[in-house]
Specification:
- The structure is a single chain.
- Helix content is 39%, strand content 20%.
- By secondary structure, it is an alpha/beta fold.
- The protein has 2 domains: 2-159 and 195-219, 3-Layer(aba) Sandwich (Rossmann fold), CATH 3.40.50.720; 164-194 and 223-264 and 279-287, Alpha-Beta Complex (UDP-galactose 4-epimerase, domain 1), CATH 3.90.25.
- The strands form 3 sheets. Strands 3-2-1-4-5-6-10 form a 7-stranded parallel sheet, sandwiched between helices. A 3-stranded mixed sheet has the order 7-9-11.
- The longest helix has 19 residues, at 80-98.
- This is Nucleoside-diphosphate-sugar epimerase.
- One of its GO terms (cellular component) is cytoplasm.
- Residues 3-213 form the NAD-dependent epimerase/dehydratase domain.
- It holds the Pfam family Epimerase.
Length: 295
Amino acid sequence: MRVFVTGASGSIGSAVVPELIAAGHEVLGLVRSDAAAAAVAAGGGTPLRGDLTDLDSLRAGAAQADGVINLAFSNDWSNIEQGIDEEARAVKTLAAALEGSGRPFVHAGLTPMQPGHTTTEEDPDTTNGPVGGRGHTSDAVLNLAAQGIRSSVVRLPRSVHQRGTTYGFCSVLIAAAQETGVSAYVGDGTQRWPAVNLLDAAQLFRIALEDAAPGTVLHAVADEGDTMRSLAETIGSVLAVPVESAPPERFGVIGRVFALDMPSSSALTRERFDWEPTHPRLIDDLAAGDYPALG
């Protein structure tokens, strides 16, 4: 099928696009710059200029496609509320374009956060706290099943990683350690972070596009939860810097999220879709080093 992908040149989109093309799909990728357009074209896709705030470009992309995968998000933690509002408006626009068509709409959500509990696909989205608005948006996507859209949400852990490129939340820990000379964790560091390799996550987005029933939740989780302290210790070992506890404020607004316990499971996704992560775990990618340099 021809698939419209927002965020096609982003950290997740850069893996989802080749995954789709390798499976025989065509990709129309939403891009914001000439460099992003060149990257999508080099990977075999067709670029479409625009972004989440350009609602006409979203309508145009959806109109040309047999299905949509929505990956774009600003990730600007200095203005997270604006990013959440932009995502919500984009979803409404895409939904209006797909209504009654039976076409698939796959949205990138977040695994829920319930401290002390390993969340599953059957747990509700987190709709409070700093990123609670994204949970409301994911709920809205699932509810599109009643409007003739084969909607699904692939919930991502906070650490989507690939050696040498991206580490999700751990990218913040790496950058802070490189800048300050200390590898820090919040509190006692026992809070657990789930993770998934970027390539395993990309495969699950394709599976959801092809096979997920309307209103389905999938969890792209490979590691149910490494402690934040173990992650900081691994980074500290690679960079040869000391490891210590720090208050959440050390990491700005995102520090409030860093303080939370958020383990998650993908057992139901693996059973229902025969999905099995095969790429390196987060700890292994961190231990291998090869971190991007600051600046």
